């Protein structure tokens, strides 16, 4: 038989699936894959269930139901002061990963360079390559993950078509400061490139900090697309409801990619997410406070065991340096604790296209407190 596609065939199964299956096999607590162990708001689930029974259950608009697109526009106005025309600047997708794929397939041509900051979420590089783009990686350094402006400037060329920005950032937990975003905006304008902003953790940002979308900076309104995720904002990751906001001339080619990918998204879930995005700021503040307490607990407990815990500005994840408790590589360590301590985590080296550090591991803290406590107890016993 003829060979399958050489780009996607060259990748193994995603590490999240591998570690989750290993966790199941060994009855381990899964602090690897990033999902909560409790479902999101009951009222939203009830709206989705009622809407499923009441209908309609036929194809909704390719762009998303008007109710949700209007809610997204109002949400972005309320939180960030962004004025969006919901009819021409908002599109609903079947998850943020599809949104990323749509952006890349819609905006780049074969041979275009796409700059990615590493460590990066694992779908970025494969999607760039499958779209025919050339990934250009720029590594950030622990422990503070400061934006490497000089290295970015060197990496950008006249062949660069866009840059992917993830803030708050998976896996590092880094949220870019205003000064860093200003520097990014200046580079985008100087090199005349698009910015695809993965902001799925926009409401999961801690220590009183504020999330600043790059699209709000001077000159960036017409060259930036902003990606959000209801799955992350409402702890409903299985729903796979994402959305893209951008200027009409930028969103139009992205919509064509969406048209030939999933085309549309379940209408009952869209209706429930519309209700969720209409919640006032106190809901999101409460959710953030709860997650922040879990971050603080797990970070302190891991430090007490002997890990060096890196700063975490947001997301579901805390990253640790394992050298205080283990002399091997991160992948070896993660397999060891999954099989022996019965706790799963993710090696950060898998978030690099080229060789990256092998001493960092990511733990997910979006679990019930008693689950985190049991995981810590198991780790302490196994690593003592």
Automatic annotation (TrEMBL):
InterPro entries registered for this protein in UniProt: Aminotransferase_I/II_large (IPR004839), Kynurenine-oxoglutarate_AT (IPR051326), PyrdxlP-dep_Trfase (IPR015424), PyrdxlP-dep_Trfase_major (IPR015421), PyrdxlP-dep_Trfase_small (IPR015422)
Fetch the CDD domains from UniProt. AAT_like (cd00609)
Which cellular component terms (GO) are annotated to the entry?
A: cytoplasm
Question: Which superkingdom, per the lineage?
Answer: Bacteria
| Residues in Aminotransferase class I/classII large domain copies | 27-379
Q: Which family does it belong to?
A: Belongs to the class-I pyridoxal-phosphate-dependent aminotransferase family.
Q: Which PANTHER family match?
A: FI04487P
- Return the protein name: Aminotransferase
Q: Which source organism?
A: Kiloniella litopenaei
Q: What is the lineage of its organism?
A: Bacteria, Pseudomonadati, Pseudomonadota, Alphaproteobacteria, Rhodospirillales
């Amino acid at each position: 038989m003829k060979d399958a596609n050489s780009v996607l065939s060259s990748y193994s199964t995603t590490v999240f699936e591998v570690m989750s299956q290993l966790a199941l096999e060994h009855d381990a607590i899964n602090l690897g894959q990033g999902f909560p162990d409790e479902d999101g708001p009951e009222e939203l689930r009830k709206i989705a269930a009622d809407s499923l029974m009441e209908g309609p259950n036929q194809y909704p608009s390719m762009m998303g139901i008007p109710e949700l697109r209007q809610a997204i526009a109002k949400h972005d106005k309320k939180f960030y002061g962004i004025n969006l025309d919901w009819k021409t600047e908002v599109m609903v997708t079947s998850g943020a990963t599809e949104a990323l794929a749509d952006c890349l397939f819609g905006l780049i041509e074969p041979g275009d360079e796409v700059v990615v900051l590493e460590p990066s979420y694992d779908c970025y590089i494969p999607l760039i390559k499958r779209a025919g783009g050339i990934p250009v990686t720029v590594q950030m350094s622990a422990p503070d993950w400061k934006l490497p402006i000089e290295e970015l400037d060197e990496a950008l060329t006249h062949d660069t078509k866009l840059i992917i920005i993830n803030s708050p950032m998976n896996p590092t937990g880094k949220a870019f400061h205003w000064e860093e975003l200003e520097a990014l905006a200046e580079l985008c304008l100087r090199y005349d490139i698009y910015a695809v902003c993965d902001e799925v953790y926009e409401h999961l940002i801690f220590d009183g900090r504020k999330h600043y979308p790059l699209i709000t900076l001077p000159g960036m309104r017409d060259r930036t697309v902003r990606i959000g995720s209801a799955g992350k904002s409402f702890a409903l990751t299985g729903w796979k409801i994402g959305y893209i906001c951008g200027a009409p001339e930028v969103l139009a080619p992205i919509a064509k990619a969406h048209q030939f990918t999933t085309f549309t998204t379940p209408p009952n879930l869209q209706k429930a997410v519309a209700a969720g995005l209409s919640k006032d700021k106190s809901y999101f503040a409460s959710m953030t406070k709860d997650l922040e307490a879990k971050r603080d607990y797990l970070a302190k407990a891991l430090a007490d065991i002997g890990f060096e815990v890196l700063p975490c500005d947001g997301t579901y994840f805390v990253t640790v340096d394992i050298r205080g408790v283990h002399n091997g590589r991160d992948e070896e360590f993660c397999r060891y604790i999954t099989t022996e301590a019965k706790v799963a985590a993710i090696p950060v080296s898998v978030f690099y296209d080229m060789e990256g550090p092998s001493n960092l591991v990511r733990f997910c803290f979006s679990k019930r407190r008693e689950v985190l406590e049991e995981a810590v107890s198991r780790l302490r016993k196994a690593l003592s």
